[in-house]
Amino acid sequence: VTALGLVLCISCLLLISVWRKSHGKGQLPPGPVPFPIVGNMLQLDFKDITKSFGSLAKSYGPVFTLYIGSEPVVVLYGYEAVKEALIDHGEEFAARGSLPIIDAVNKGLGIVFSSGEKWKQMRRFSLTTLKNLGMGKRNIEERVQEEAKFLVEEFKKANGQPYDPRFILECAPCNVICSVIFQKRFEYDDQKFLHLVELLQENNKILNSPWIQEKQNQETAFTMENLAQTVSDLFIAGSETTSITLRYGLLLLLKHPEIADKIREEIDHVIGQNRSPCMKDRRSMPYTDAVVHEIQRHLDLIPSNLPHAAKQDTQFRQYAIPKGTIIFTSLTSVLYDEKVFPNAQQFDPGHFLDESGNFKKSNYFMPFSIGKRVCVGEGLAPMELFLVFTTILQNFTLKPLIDPKDINITPIATGFVCVLPPYELCFLPSL
């Protein structure tokens, strides 16, 4: 009885501590009652965090609070709440939320997981440097076209036999970043290059382990350590994410061969077989453009976005968000909004086409996030996706090993980053 009483007393004290955190500096948004020590972690499915957030949003509305341990996390669900936070309150929520595994490695350096003045300086420096190296210019497009050709040559070596594209589709985007930062590409069997790809794969595994807590370190911006971490961030953000999107895109096209056929028709009509695709072609290829957008929407690569944090005490709607509170913005709730994307669970390029078959933009398309911390690579990734997909489909017919209706396109896990199921296909050369 005494032990039970002690446990109850400790539990009550912990609950009082949590209550004080919720009400000490103002009213946090509502949310489920947390358990002592673990908070709400037992109520979340970390393999499908999106589903958990959706269920909680139905109960508590588009702005709610969770506790990861004893730390409050504010979750924003739906376009209006996400836009209001990242655009209207962009400056107040521009800090980066903390991930302990990343903090242990990054030490608050680089541009992805840093905050404050240090982040502003490094982001400005990175954007200026990338622009000087050719980002957004014809120079980069030519490098992507070159890499797409090497990719095609690699696929041809399989001679139409079953082939797992994962490794090469990780090498190609990585090589594009290498060509920007180091001004050279590497052969796919170069040992240093292969080691770099392995490190990027390992990083993705780490990001899918349990996350949150710990404070940021504040250091000066321009050190060799910080510059090295910034380069590492550019590789992580610019290669692994594009690689996953390319793999998922091919999987979707295997599942929907009629869509691949329509893209091929557009390629034959606009480009033909005698030259490489270029970005100017995209204006004349609305269906292909819509497919590339729909691949990104349907993949929903980083469902809960990278965590933000309140850089100061902030009034958000009727709530008071204390400085340092971690903010999760559910990109899934925007990319899968049924009002804008009817039958959102279906892969349908029509989500980005108007009644006349012209490409249709949408404010709800935000796979790269929005606001002050929008992905640095938002200009490069769409170029890579368009050029690589069109180059592959210009040269090959994609043949699945099983009936398309039996192909499973569901990610293995949708925690921090989507994890895709492995698959093989045959690249049959076009006649």
UniProtKB/TrEMBL annotation:
<keyword id="KW-0256">Endoplasmic reticulum</keyword>
<dbReference type="InterPro" id="IPR036396">
    <property type="entry name" value="Cyt_P450_sf"/>
</dbReference>
<comment type="similarity">
    <text>Belongs to the cytochrome P450 family.</text>
</comment>
<keyword id="KW-0492">Microsome</keyword>
<dbReference type="InterPro" id="IPR001128">
    <property type="entry name" value="Cyt_P450"/>
</dbReference>
<keyword id="KW-0479">Metal-binding</keyword>
<dbReference type="GO" id="GO:0006805">
    <property type="term" value="P:xenobiotic metabolic process"/>
</dbReference>
<feature type="signal peptide">
    <location>
        <begin position="1"/>
        <end position="24"/>
    </location>
</feature>
<dbReference type="InterPro" id="IPR050182">
    <property type="entry name" value="Cytochrome_P450_fam2"/>
</dbReference>
<keyword id="KW-0503">Monooxygenase</keyword>
<dbReference type="InterPro" id="IPR002401">
    <property type="entry name" value="Cyt_P450_E_grp-I"/>
</dbReference>
<keyword id="KW-0560">Oxidoreductase</keyword>
<dbReference type="GO" id="GO:0005789">
    <property type="term" value="C:endoplasmic reticulum membrane"/>
</dbReference>
<protein>
    <recommendedName>
        <fullName>unspecific monooxygenase</fullName>
        <ecNumber>1.14.14.1</ecNumber>
    </recommendedName>
</protein>
<dbReference type="InterPro" id="IPR017972">
    <property type="entry name" value="Cyt_P450_CS"/>
</dbReference>
<dbReference type="Pfam" id="PF00067">
    <property type="entry name" value="p450"/>
</dbReference>
<keyword id="KW-0408">Iron</keyword>
<dbReference type="GO" id="GO:0020037">
    <property type="term" value="F:heme binding"/>
</dbReference>
<dbReference type="GO" id="GO:0005506">
    <property type="term" value="F:iron ion binding"/>
</dbReference>
<keyword id="KW-0732">Signal</keyword>
<keyword id="KW-0472">Membrane</keyword>
<keyword id="KW-0349">Heme</keyword>
<dbReference type="GO" id="GO:0016712">
    <property type="term" value="F:oxidoreductase activity, acting on paired donors, with incorporation or reduction of molecular oxygen, reduced flavin or flavoprotein as one donor, and incorporation of one atom of oxygen"/>
</dbReference>
<feature type="binding site" description="axial binding residue">
    <location>
        <position position="375"/>
    </location>
    <ligand>
        <name>heme</name>
    </ligand>
</feature>
<dbReference type="GO" id="GO:0006082">
    <property type="term" value="P:organic acid metabolic process"/>
</dbReference>
